[in-house]
Amino acid sequence: SSLTSKRSIPELQHAPAPLVMVTAYDFPGGRHAEAAGVDLILVGDSLGNVVLGYDSTAPVTLGDMIHHARAVRRGAPNTFMVVDMPFGTYHTGVTDAMRNAVRIIQETGADAVKMEGATTEILQVVDNLTRNGIPVMGHVGLMPQTATAQGGLKVQGKDDESARLTLSGALALEQAGAFSVVLEAIPSRLAKLITGRLGVPTIGIGAGVGCDGQVLVAHDLLGIYEDEEKKIAKRYAELGRAAREAIAAYAAEVRAREFPAKENSFVMKDEVLGKLY
Ligand code: KIV
Ligand code: NA
């Protein structure tokens, strides 16, 4: 057994129960995830959508990812942390990808990086990074960084050609050295088939119950955004409503001069106050 509670890659790969992964983007997010006892934290480039307010992940930079992942790590020192390589940081050749992955590992304390796709170029990068000791999580199915080229944010692998492409991509990622593969937005029967074919764990989002693990975007499961139902996520809380109601209650009390109350205020002795007059 290890000195810390952080799971090792072999432990993750041989876990008896489904792996639990959740995204985090800052110190409290890391704290909550670690306290809840998840197996892996993903600092996802969904950062762009749920934290930075962009309408896609494409604008997210390496600097953004490093800045946020460092904060997550401070909140979750003992949880296996995967950091997404953002769009453009692993597409200009193996050397650039290696340099950017090294920055993520060194500057954030990440245990692994994640990247989308299984093209020849991406597979070369995965092979190179893993040979050089940087664990890589793959990602196939719906790939938000290049969703425009996939025809929008759509379920993948529904026809036989697309299904074959998703399966062969996942298999090739394992061959290239990926220690795990995310399957996003594919039919559950295809995800189950891929999971059966792969030696390394699959982690699903919108991919059914037959994967080796599940991942959700924290903001989705926490219900941070009101009236935003997503088929692939379940809302386990309504923190968006709670936040709005709390801020509105504060505003009402300030306007009614009910806050701050006596117990929130500091006292001064009469004689000290008297000297001021
Ligand atoms: O960026 C992200 O949050 C992800 C998960 C949805 C897998 O890549
Ligand atoms: Na991502």
From TrEMBL:
Pathway the protein acts in: Cofactor biosynthesis; (R)-pantothenate biosynthesis; (R)-pantoate from 3-methyl-2-oxobutanoate: step 1/2
Enzyme class, spelled out: transferase
Record: residues binding Mg(2+): 45, 84, 116
Entry keyword annotation includes Repeat: no
Stated name of the protein: 3-methyl-2-oxobutanoate hydroxymethyltransferase
Locations listed in the record: Cytoplasm
Signal sequence, start to end: none
Keywords noted in UniProt: Cytoplasm, Magnesium, Metal-binding, Methyltransferase, Pantothenate biosynthesis, Transferase
Enzymatic reactions: (6R)-5,10-methylene-5,6,7,8-tetrahydrofolate + 3-methyl-2-oxobutanoate + H2O = 2-dehydropantoate + (6S)-5,6,7,8-tetrahydrofolate
Organism: Deinococcus reticulitermitis
Enzyme Commission designation: 2.1.2.11
Bound cofactor: record note: Binds 1 Mg(2+) ion per subunit.
UniProt GO molecular function: 3-methyl-2-oxobutanoate hydroxymethyltransferase activity; magnesium ion binding; methyltransferase activity
